[in-house]
UniProtKB/TrEMBL annotation:
<keyword id="KW-0813">Transport</keyword>
<dbReference type="GO" id="GO:0055085">
    <property type="term" value="P:transmembrane transport"/>
</dbReference>
<dbReference type="GO" id="GO:0005886">
    <property type="term" value="C:plasma membrane"/>
</dbReference>
<protein>
    <submittedName>
        <fullName>Protein lplB</fullName>
    </submittedName>
</protein>
<keyword id="KW-0812">Transmembrane</keyword>
<dbReference type="InterPro" id="IPR050809">
    <property type="entry name" value="UgpAE/MalFG_permease"/>
</dbReference>
<keyword id="KW-1003">Cell membrane</keyword>
<dbReference type="Pfam" id="PF00528">
    <property type="entry name" value="BPD_transp_1"/>
</dbReference>
<feature type="transmembrane region" description="Helical">
    <location>
        <begin position="259"/>
        <end position="282"/>
    </location>
</feature>
<feature type="transmembrane region" description="Helical">
    <location>
        <begin position="197"/>
        <end position="215"/>
    </location>
</feature>
<comment type="similarity">
    <text>Belongs to the binding-protein-dependent transport system permease family.</text>
</comment>
<feature type="transmembrane region" description="Helical">
    <location>
        <begin position="164"/>
        <end position="185"/>
    </location>
</feature>
<feature type="domain" description="ABC transmembrane type-1">
    <location>
        <begin position="63"/>
        <end position="278"/>
    </location>
</feature>
<feature type="transmembrane region" description="Helical">
    <location>
        <begin position="7"/>
        <end position="30"/>
    </location>
</feature>
<feature type="transmembrane region" description="Helical">
    <location>
        <begin position="103"/>
        <end position="123"/>
    </location>
</feature>
<dbReference type="InterPro" id="IPR035906">
    <property type="entry name" value="MetI-like_sf"/>
</dbReference>
<feature type="transmembrane region" description="Helical">
    <location>
        <begin position="67"/>
        <end position="91"/>
    </location>
</feature>
Amino acid sequence: MKAFYLMLLAPMILLAIFSYGPMYGLLIAFKDFSPGLGILESPWNNFEHFKRLFDDFLFIRALRNTIIISLLKILISFPAPIIFALLLNEVRHMKFKKVTQSISYLPHFMSWVILSAMIVEVFSPERGIVNYFITMFGGDPVHFLASKSAFIPILIGTDIWKEIGYAAIIYLATMSSIDTGLYEAAEMDGANRFHKMIHITIPSIMPMIIILFILRLGSVLNAGFDQILNLYNPLVYEVADIIDTYVYRAGLEQFQFDYATAVGLFKNVVGIILILGANAIIRRKSEHGIW
């Protein structure tokens, strides 16, 4: 038993240093922070940064964009790996199944810096393959990444492309633990593959879907900082600027560390409330939940 506690020591130390230690810095959200005075000596500001939040047009815009992008990702991106896993689970040609899985996993292990460079090239108005086909059929080149109407669909599509394979792993693992006797019994009763998927596979993975959905709701104000930071530009700020990019500019570019901390704290508190609320609602309606 002592060996297990010893193995646990290293991750606990890392958690304390990198997750709990920085919480001390949250104090500056309630202060007029001055680097010269330090965190403790800086004067308290009577919640002025939080009062400023909803008077700031740029914050309201970032909050609106964050909610819109996050809800679209929940509605479209969240079901995508479930559907992919269900379809892949029905494949009987094992070599094709393994190759498909390997190809779908690959984008997850590449950073958004690399993937964004690829996406920029694909949608480039001068040399992108998409505009090549548009001009080949007589159309005019389109600057997709500078278009307010095209930018959000590109975000959703590339997010699915990057994560669908890796996110499907947990569903495929859950499906592999389903009792095969259930399928055999259903087959004896005349059920086809579609019926077995609807009445056995989906109900069996539903607890996992619910848990992951609750956790996803908790990050509803995380719309994909790395992705958007590497793809957006001032021409699409109106639809693409989210809370995280707003905090990035306010804190690191404008040196408003205290205000940026207040914005970040607001976002995290909302996330906690959403997790607790969603878990409480689902626990009332079913036996599933995080706790």
